[in-house]
Amino acid sequence: MTTTFLRRTLTAATATGGAAVLILAAAAGASAHVGVTPNKTDANSYALLTFGIPHGCEESDTTKVAITLPAELNDAQPTVNPNWTVEKVTEQLAEPKKLADGTSISKRTSQIVYTAKAPLEHELRDALVLSVKLPDAAGTTLYFPTLQSCETGQTDWSEIATDGQDPHSLKAPAPSITITEAASADGHGAAASTAHTAEQVAAVTDSGADARSWAGLAAGLGGLALGGVAFARSSSKRRQESAA
Q1: CA distances from 163 to 160, 166, 167, 184, 202 (A)
Q2: Are 86 and 46 contacting, i.e. CB atoms less than 8 angstroms apart?
């Protein structure tokens, strides 16, 4: 009886360990992308976009990160990060672009380039923050193709899902956000769209994938723990009945 009990216990432990490994692997994979997390997504508002820089290119340390701005944005103000130097790259527009205030521009900021003062070790993360004015275009998804250069090799985070394609199936997805409706003057618009905004942000950012992965990990491990306790209690009860 003792041998049978030990065999069953080891089998259950092996299955539990294997499931935990799979869950951890899934969570690690989700956190491997360069992602962007906005502090707000309201149309026609100023937002802070935080780009998470994960591991380097395979095992190589990161030396430069070039973030391309979507055509809908005219400029971005980079936040100072003591670990990096930063520069703006501008482009000449094919024709002047008229702004909402009636003025026109002939150039726009097309890219923000961060260069590491010392290579970012591949097992470490860092965050790069941009301040931008979001366009008045609720429902529009803005993509930020990002080129991550390393001491050896580079990763071009620029893939965009086609219609019907799962964004999480992409190997190197471009960081993105979806603009939501502008808040009304009394703030009701922001309150009504809070849950919807959170759902959209989670769907289009790597940080959202991280949150879902870790939540799934916690739920999965909790279920495995409860299953193990139930199995142990059942085995103990059977041993007591056999002894009686």
Answers
A1: 10, 9, 10, 31, 18
A2: no
